[in-house]
Amino acid sequence: MNGPAAAFLARLLLAAAFCWQAASARASDVPYVPTPMNVVDAMLGLGSVGPGDYLIDLGSGDGRISIRAAARFGVSGFGVDLDDNLVGIARAAAAKQGVGDKVKFEARNLFDTDLGRATVVTAYLLNSVNLRLRPQLFEQLKPGTRIVTHDFHFGDWQPDQKITIDVPDKAYGPPRSDIMLWVVPADFSGVWQWTLPGAGGDVRHEARLSQKFQVLYGRASAQDRQVLLADAKIRGDAVSFTLGDAAGAQRYSGRISGNTISGEVQLPGGGRPLPWQATRIKTGKMDISATDRGRMQVAVSGGLPKEQ
Description:
Rossmann fold, Lipocalin, 9-stranded antiparallel sheet, 18 strands, 38% strand
């Protein structure tokens, strides 16, 4: 069998195995496919991994993501995998590259792993496993923690950023990969109140906010008069939004700490921004429920296995 034919057969067999194993949502059903090194570098770049980070790699395989992060950026952390043999390979590779003191590898179930220390989480898992993992991420990770995945997503929790790169040595499917970034959002939902100086004295403002993942929406008022709330954005513990129309919009930005948001507001007409602080008088609850948990299907297009 010639080279191209052999390569095609290998991809076809891997795709078939991938699809067969994707029929269940257990972490043990994720087939081991090494992450190409240019994908590793793209994941670390998209996640802005750097000194001071603590990286946890879920389904760490031969440890290449954690080892690369430690060797390039001095990052500490650990990886977990169910395969004892792969864990042994990862430990040996870390020792060989001189980073065995920075990254550890454990043979364990990722669903039984405490993720709370992470500032960055990386994963190359199936969609079905990611969906099972999603509540654990929101429960254990601090707002602002970055999650980076290769090819597979978290359902209706949309990524904050996505890039597609060429991967000439990819083991299956078309020679390209999607790299996606999520930033764990703080919960801004609830009723917030604050005052700002006005021509006739302080003006009381109120915003009633709801939140679905990092998407913020709601309504607001100033001295009991409805005003337009628009351009709301969340990234980690930071929030920004505008009140009013384009001709007279107040532009807010701030960070949350408990039931307080502190930051600045730019008033219409320019000038220096004013300090701004809002207090939450009634707590809400961010919606992280799944809306697309229907029966998991697997499609193969051009040799690429992909959960839908």
